[in-house]
Amino acid sequence: EHVWLRTLHNEAALQTREIEEGWACLPAVDMAVHMATSLRFSNSDMSKYVMWDMDSERSMATWWNHSAGRQAVERAADHLVTVQDQGGNTKQCHQNAYGIMKAGEHGGSYPAATFNTYGNTGGGDLCMAVGVSTGGKDGWSNNMNGWDAPRSDIDWPNAAYSVPPHISVWLK
């Protein structure tokens, strides 16, 4: 929960398009706060994707900071964001200065653009989030409904939730 997109993990796997086993990331918070304006989830060959502008109120103290805890994330102001896919389809979704799903039973998934203010998920829409834990942590419980991302390269946008994500996260 505290390492996804915050530390180097399995960095050798980042040299390939397909991560065969487990997951990999690099510390991306500083880049996301100070250099980038938008975020993209894509499949392995980048032919399928969703993208949105990151919250304008994000900071080094808030962005993807799961350890801030559920109560802090739930108190954060909600902002509408337009998510767009590779075909130009759009959907209004919700995000906050933490970039973390608010729903208390969803595990604090991030990055997240959620279906509604509460932080719910919905399969088959463009609002998505990456599940970061299988158990409860930092005040969240976890029924796995926060795992709201495609489970394969062809499952776009995503037919269901509660499945392990199969995506790449890009900053622009």
Main sheet summary? 5 strands, antiparallel
Beta-strand content: 15-25%
Give the termini distance in whole angstroms. 23 Å
What are the secondary-structure elements, in order, as H or E?
HEEHEEE
Ranges with pLDDT <50 over ≥5 residues? none
What would you note in describing this structure?
The protein has helices at 29-34, 70-75; strands spanning 38-42, 49-53, 79-85, 90-95, 168-171. With 172 residues, it is mostly beta strands. Strands 4-3-2-1-5 form a 5-stranded antiparallel beta sheet, with no helix packed on it. The radius of gyration is 14 Å and the shape is globular. It starts with 28 loop residues before the first helix and ends with a strand. 37% of the residues are buried. The model has no long low-confidence stretch (mean pLDDT 92).
Spell out the blueprint of helices and strands.
Elements: H1 29-34, E1 38-42, E2 49-53, H2 70-75, E3 79-85, E4 90-95, E5 168-171
Antiparallel strand pairs: 1-2, 1-5, 2-3, 3-4
